[in-house]
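Appendix C. Worked example: S1 motif domain-containing protein
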Amino acid sequence: MQVQNLREYPMSMNYEIKIASELSIKPHQVKATLELLDEGGTVPFISRYRKEATGSLDEVQVAAIRDRVTQLRELDKRKEAVLKSIEEQGKLTDTLKKSVEEAETMSKLEDIYLPYKPKRRTKATIAREKGLEPLAELIFEQKSSNLSSEAESYVSEEKEVKSVEEALQGARDIISEWINENAPLREKMRKLFLEDGTFTSKVIPGKEAEAAKYKDYFDWSEPIKSAPSHRVLAMRRGEKELFLMLDSCPEELTALGVIEREILADEANESVDQVKLAIKDAYKRLLKPSMETEVRLLTKKKADEEAIRVFAENLRQLLLGAPLGEKSVMAIDPGFRTGCKLVCLGPQGQFLQYEAIFPHEPQRRSAEAGMTIKGLVEKYKVQAIAIGNGTAGRETEAFVKSLGLPKSVIVTMVNEAGASIYSASEVAREEFPDLDLTVRGAVSIGRRLMDPLAELVKIDPKSIGVGQYQHDVDQNSLKNALDDTVMSAVNGVGVEVNTASKQLLTYVSGLGPVLAQNIIDFRNQNGPFASRSQLLKVPRLGEKAYEQAAGFLRIGQAKNPLDASAVHPERYALVESMAKDLGASVAELVQSEELRQKINLKSYVSDQVGLPTLQDILEELAKPGRDPRETFEVFQFEESVNAISDLKTGMKLPGVVTNITAFGAFVDVGVHQDGLVHLSHLADRFVKDPNEIVHVNQKVQVTVMEVDVARKRIGLSMKSDPFAERGKKADKPNRNSQRREEPQGTMAEKLAMLKGKFGS
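Step 2, the predicted output written as structure tokens:
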């Protein structure tokens, strides 16, 4: 029975039940979250202020629901297009429509659609034009043993079939296409490629010297299902740069066996022999290229997701680094030949003064430089000195420490990755139109010490230096993930509306660049905001945007203490009721722990407000506007170690984690070259995910395992006794282990990749 009208069969999908099952949560939680998202709610707002509706889902769960429903809706849109196309061909049956609607993935849907998909003129198309489809049907039945006489009747000059073999070839072309378009078979082949396929990488002959950085992949193979993301991306990059040949298939005999078991009859005759030939042709010419393309896309997507996850987690940790706070800061962008760029900043990061000093070779005007630093420290009552960790960083740190400055002045190194990107950006030009690029870079270094989050949001996250193959992954997916990460960090900390930059305000829930600029303009024209309610006077900032943003914006000097807290304005009346019931003011409730302990939260539960929100309010009243970030601690490198040549095997050194990858963590030990703590050396126990052990900006103790000065390689360990296994016979590979060690020679490649030495 054919479907006459597609509109009589509306598409339907119970998203709530499906997503709830996948995420192991309740359908009503998904339903409420979807409604809030569709109403324009942001992930931070929903997870923070709509806990009663969602059942206290966190940001990760809310974002997962958002992303999954987007996928399902895209799938449904594609289903509608497929059904419409098949209907227009007059081939849509109830059974076919049911198959389309029940397809759970895009791959399965496209498999079903493949026989009906408009395609270019193929070998099978040409064979059909010659009238050979009946012969193909006869052969495919696999019963005939006298094909020559059957095929003879299809030989025709008029139809350009000149021989029996040509007729049989045409029939086989049609059968090959049928095999390729068999949806259940394609699903089995897809599974075979993913579960039994192997990545095989070989160097292109004659390119061995050029491709030296890919030496580990000159003759490399490993199962597709267990290949880690960084190796998948490395091999693909080598292929893209025309250094490597990459194959991703199972054994051919295994693949042919799967098809034959699905297609071939048990008997032996001429028809079966013809079908065998068609199977080989279908696999080599159609199925294998198609499956390999699909598998490469699927593995690329999986590798992208892992690389993006690592990048996003590193970025989150970096953004949430401990802030020094509002202090008078001197910032130094170090250098040898061109000197050190020095700026002084006020407690709110305002630029005060710039000087260039030359304490190092070749000028070595150290006395003059020392006088300049001492004078500025006294003039601006400098409380901390931030020194960039680039070229001449350790030398400049040592020089500053030798000046005999007051002990109260903190001297510390700051990671300057991305500072040069900021200094040349439009954001920097808007902030400091009259300053040189190098001066802007010094300002960025100082502000990073004061508030890493507020400064780093001004830089494209891809330039901050905490990614893994970030230029090889899907850029839209990367951008979305990093935007989510920045938004989560910004809203988790909260933003002081009277001092925040446009870039920081842009990431506040419900705002964006236009409203952020409008807030800045309003602030400039009318002075500091005195209350949150005043935000409603900002042009184009309506009730919905106010609802989404207000709880994350802080006004420290507001008359109402709640304006400096994370309590949402929609709950002010509730807090006032709590205070009134205790015979106190809101300010007194904030100040008195004794009063807060008298609050019986259950008595304030209503249809709109439950215990989760009430508990959040009580916690916020205890520490209004609290900063969730760690307290700043001064870190010092080993003073006697300043260059890679100073390192010796066995040294134990303090270091700072600068980047985390799937295969380990990079640590700065103060020698202008990060060392690698491989996954196997992060702890005394087995480690699957480096984030179990370390986080970006973490202070760690490491042992130097190996140093290669020529290749700038440093191997480090965080084990308590890293040399315990030295001298023992190497263990044989465990075939049952799902963990593979990083190929020994790839450290240089990964280090070069992460430091931008190649392929940016």
